[in-house]
Amino acid sequence: MWSKPLLAAMLGMAISSGCQGPAVGGPCTYDEMDFTATPTGYTETGVLFLNPHGVEIDIQKNRFETVPEAGEEVTLQVMKITSGSCTPEIYTVVDDSAG
Question: Per the record's keyword annotation, is Signal included, yes or no (predicted)?
């Protein structure tokens, strides 16, 4: 007759071996590009900009040392995915010093 601890161990091994499939997502690669933008608007929590393709993006205000005012230029970086299944586009503030 099977002991309860042995059955529990066998069940645990069976379950964990079923989780050994391929990793979802995997390593991703991105193309990076810096661009200069000026605010096009504001929300309660973010600053709106146009990306290089003319699509509006929202960057959270807490990502800036100083929230840019209308007309101030900000350097942003876009990382656009080229392979894998991670976040399609990532925007980062590179330089938010008023220029």
Answer: yes
Backbone angles phi and psi of 16, in degrees to 5: -70, -30
pLDDT tens track for 72-86? 999 999 999 999 989
Q: What does the mean pLDDT of the chain come to?
A: 82
Structure pTM? 0.67
Q: Buried (b) or exposed (e) across 14-40, using 16+ Cβ within 10 A?
A: eeeeeeeeeeeeeeeebeeeeeebebe
Q: Are 76 and 91 in contact (CB under 8 A)?
A: yes
| CB-CB contact of 40 with 57 (8 Å) | no
- Alpha-carbon span 6 to 58, nearest angstrom: 55
